[in-house]
Amino acid sequence: MRNGNQPVGILAIQGDFAMHAKMLDRVGAPWKLVKRASDLDEAGGLIMPGGESTTMLKFFAAEGFGSAIKYFAAAGKPVFGTCAGAILLAREVLNPPQERLELMDIAVERNGYGRQIDSSVRQGECPDLAGRPIEMVFIRAPIIRRVGARVRVLGRSEGLPVLVEQGKLLAATFHPELTEDETIHRYFLEKLSH
Fold first, then answer.
1. Is this prediction's pTM over 0.90?
2. What DSSP character marks residue 70?
3. Does the pLDDT at position 144 exceed 50?
């Protein structure tokens, strides 16, 4: 399925990385926790989980993760960012502006759906991936406010884009790892085999 059967790296510096690992176990995909930039050398793809994007950025600056992830993506390896991971992938971040990797041509508004108390489970449509509604968990989630010309919208909820891709980059403003639905992770894994 994957080139050389390299495991999927899961960024494990902060956030809900353990739930992504459980989802990959369910779909039978090998994975490894990425705690140092050098761990990326052994990964065929990377999942950047939800959590607190500003906390992750501080760690990136101290450990050189930002440039390592940019190099990883430039080498054509797939990267999947969920919630805070999507914020980090964005070219532009609003509310407030912050540092980011600028890998995907999207603009996101941090905490666009509200505070933690406003977290919700909603149904969304991903017509190219599933012929049925998909459960989506939003926790202090960002809103995608702009999508560039090379970005494809794969999923929407309440009219807003919530799942987008640009080449081998995939970003979700929700948490697919917190549901029983394997659709999104399986789609990401397909990127590792192309």
1. yes
2. H
3. yes
Q: Which of 109, 125, 165, 177 is catalytic?
A: 177
State the residue range of the domain holding 136: 3-192
pLDDT of residue 171: 98
Quick check: 1 and 192 in contact, CB under 8 A? yes
* Mean pLDDT of the chain, nearest integer: 90
- Angle at the Cα of 80 from the Cα atoms of 175 and 109, rounded to 5 degrees: 65
Q: Is 177 assigned a catalytic role?
A: yes
Judge contact between 139 and 179, C-beta under 8 A: no
Structure confidence by residue, pLDDT tens digits, 2-52 = 445 799 999 998 888 999 999 999 999 999 999 999 999 999 999 999 888
Active site residue 175: yes
Catalytic residue of the set 20, 83, 109, 185: 83
Judged by DSSP in three states, 135 sits in strand
Is 180 a catalytic site residue?
Answer: no
Distance, CA of 13 to CA of 69 (rounded, Å): 14
How many domains does the chain divide into? 1
Amino acid letter, 84: A
